[in-house]
Write a structure and sequence with these properties.
Radius of gyration: 17 Å
Number of helices: 3
Low-confidence stretches: none
Structural class: mainly alpha
Mean pLDDT: 78
Strand content: under 5%
Distance between the termini: 27 Å
Number of strands: 0
Largest sheet: none
Shape: elongated
Length: 69
């Protein structure tokens, strides 16, 4: 059986703080959701429209600066 190495962020960066990283991630996600919500105002709301919009804009979310781990 192969096991993956364990990575402990606090060992890599002594200034790393899990609560701070979570706050930063949530703030970024909230801003992204605000933009998605604003874009949804432009067309009738439906699950299909929301799915297409999120799929089209997912790169913005995943490419955003994230807290250093």
């Amino acid at each position: 059986m192969v096991t993956a190495p364990v990575f402990a962020p606090e060992e890599a960066d002594p200034g790393w703080s899990r609560p701070q990283a979570r706050r930063e991630l949530h703030q970024g996600f909230d801003l992204w959701l605000d933009e998605v919500e604003e874009a949804m105002q432009e067309e009738p709301a439906s699950l299909d429209a929301l799915s297409r919009l999120v799929f089209a804009r997912r790169q913005e979310l995943t490419a955003a600066d994230t807290p250093k781990l």
